[in-house]
Amino acid sequence: MKRIIILLPILFLCCKPNSSLVSNTVQDISYKSIDIQYLVKENEVAAMLKYLSSDELEGRETGTKGMEKAAVYLEEFLKSNNVKPYFYSYRDSLANFKGTAYNIVGYIEGSDPILKKEFLLISAHYDHIGLAKVGVNGDIINNGANDDASGTTAVAEMAKYFSAIKSNKRSVLFVFFAGEEKGLLGSKHLAKKLHSQNFNLYAQFNIEMIGVPMKRDYLAYITGFDKTNMASKINEYTGKKTIGFLPKEAELRLFNRSDNYSFYDVFHVPCQSVSTFDFENFDYYHHVSDEFRAMDMSHMTSFIQEMLPAVTEMANTASREIHMN
């Protein structure tokens, strides 16, 4: 997640959700879950997360050799799971970064002759902040397991899922962004590029920091809660109180601080990030101790599994059920 400056005065530029809206979108809905037979495997989730957050990748700072290794790994993963590159190759070179960096972009074409012209974008950033200038107990590698190797792993698992079921009516774009930690560079670049190509974006589902669970009566929260009906539709699709409202999210304006905002700013359609990092459950944000061993594999696996009905419905509903409020 892009650095959050908590000590500065907070400007409440985002509208705070009113109580009636929160009640209507979270508590008073009629659940109708769909059955998902596909099972996410915890050992496979762990294997990917462990590599992406390993010391070998040296914190995955954009433009470094460690980031290149992560890119190669993700390319091979998409290729091995029959997810095609959206462009000529999986690599989408950033035009707004002085060095060499690229998003990794794959897609699965929709099966419906009309709906396949619309895209669901599922994304996470695979970069982190690299090496620390001052270490902690000799450790200088910001491994970024939670931020955002966890989200990257979730997106990869969803790509594998859609490839296996082969039933998405809309086309699905899977994006691993570079340069998020340097000012949302990868998402800004791609949003501008796709918009210039008349890309038909239905919604963006961005995954940010889901490595540890919250102690709340819902699984995750969504940024910009009151901007769209995405929270209520996810809960409807999963048949559970999966998404809740986190007041801290509105206070810190998190909607503007991750890769969803770049697409919302250009396309003006529902583009939101989902997270389980609530500022109370993990002490190592942008810290060398954000490592694999601190992650909860059971939680991550359950998170991905619970979100499968939601992304499945997003990719298949006959109409655009998710919309701006």
For the CA atoms, what is the radius of gyration? Answer: 18 Å
| General form | globular
Percent of residues in helices: 25-40%
The CATH architecture can be named as 3-Layer(aba) Sandwich
State the total count of DSSP E strands: 11
- CATH fold-level name: Aminopeptidase
Order of helices and strands: HHHEEEEEEHEHEEHEHHEH
Strand content: 15-25%
On the 0-100 scale, what is the average pLDDT? 92
Number of helices: 9
What does this structure look like?
With 325 residues, the chain is α/β, with parallel strands linked by helices. Helix content is 34%, strand content 16%. It has a single domain (19-314), classed as Aminopeptidase (3-Layer(aba) Sandwich). Helix 2 packs across helix 4, helix 4 (145-165) packs across helix 9 and helix 5 packs parallel to helix 8 (260-267). The radius of gyration is 18 Å and the shape is globular. The chain starts with 18 loop residues before the first helix and ends in an 11-residue tail after the last helix. The model is unreliable at 5-29 (pLDDT under 50).
